[in-house]
Amino acid sequence: MENGPFGRRAAIRRNLEIRAALFRAVRIFFGEQGFLEVETPCRAPAPLPEAHVEAVPADGWFLQTSPESSMKRLLAAGYQRIYTIHRAFRKAERGSRHLPEFSLLEWYRSQSDYTRLMDDCEALVASAARALGRGPSIPYLGTEISLTPPWPRLTVDEAFRRFAGKSAAQAISTGSFDSDMAFSVEPALPRDRPVFLYRYPAEKASLARLSPDDPTVAERFELYMGGLEIANAFSELCDPALQAGRFALEEAARRAAGMPPYPPPARFLEDLALMPPSAGIALGLDRLAMLFADTAAIDDVTAFVPEEL
Prior knowledge:
The protein is of the alpha+beta class. The protein is built from ten helices and 14 strands. The strands form three sheets. Strands 1, 5, 6, 9, 10, 11, 12, 13 and 14 form a nine-stranded mixed β-sheet that branches. Strands 2-4-3 form a three-stranded antiparallel β-sheet, with no helix packed on it. It has a two-stranded antiparallel sheet with strand order 7-8. Helix 2 (13-32) packs across helix 4 (114-131), helix 5 crosses helix 7 and helix 8 (240-256) packs antiparallel against helix 9 (266-272). The model has no long low-confidence stretch (mean pLDDT 96).
């Protein structure tokens, strides 16, 4: 941008207005749906281990990479419908779609599964579009994205067979799943409709429970809009022993990659035993703002980026 950071911030004022209106619309939507807005800590003694995510140390603790652990502990305490807009932190994440500090929207439903969250996504985005004065479609980078539900739902295996020329199981067995997803599947997903990519292989379950009708797949989906990954959702795994086993595998992968060890998230696992069947989702608000602002760069919806601080 011309004239340095001051010129950049002047140029993106309209985008920041869109961002602010989006955040207002999100809060109105969840208030009308009977959700309680909660605040969760930005710092914790033990982050949930993920092989490809590194937390930022902070005075002996860690900045939270997600509010997930705190939100689930609230579910265990009896909360039914909760949401939060949270600043999350991830070390060394920087690019046109990534920032080391960013805004996450997470919401959780007790006694629900991940298909209910698909309905929520359709209703939330449509409600936000109306609040921003948009119609049933929005332009994004030269493509008109229709928001009319129902949005297409494509299993991960179907997507791999169609776009990568192999099954998801074959990609897992050869170690090419992540690269095939990034370079073959994601670029080929429809751009004119939001699409849910669901039923991930069990090996990619993360914190999701396995499907009771097919334990080779997990009840997990990701939402893509205009080529952007917008959200990641689960029917939550409530078994602390199984979850501890998955954490051990993630921690082993982290250490093999030379990443520092984390303390075990003991209190999270204790409370997990009390959590009812639930579903939860993390949605990147910066990326949703990018869509409504019709920009390919996350910097264009961010008042201050790291290089300016």
